[in-house]
Amino acid sequence: MGDVTTLNAIAEEIKAHSDSCVPLSKQIVQLAEDFDLDGIQKLADALDAS
After folding, report:
1. Which of 20, 24, 40 is nearest to 11 (CA)?
2. Confidence band (pLDDT; 50, 70, 90) for 4?
């Protein structure tokens, strides 16, 4: 549960950064709520590669 809370907090920080970051923020929240750890890892890897 703590990881979900942390990811939601990170998503809020991202959303506050720019309106263009809202879709990314929503994606992180959805992955966290679904406990989709593989999806979170893939997203992190994709962001790291870009």
Report:
1. 24
2. confident
Residue 23 CA to residue 36 CA, distance in Å, equals 17
| Residues 20, 2: Cα–Cα separation, whole Å | 27
- Which residue type is seen at 8? N
pTM score, two decimals? 0.82
Copy the structure tokens of residue 2. 């703590």
Instruction: Domain ranges for the chain, please list them.
Output: 2-49
Q: What is the pLDDT of residues 14-44, one digit of tens each?
A: 999 999 999 999 999 999 999 998 999 999 9
Judge contact between 32 and 4, C-beta under 8 A: yes
Which are the contacts of 48, defined by CB distance < 8 A and separation ≥ 6?
A: none
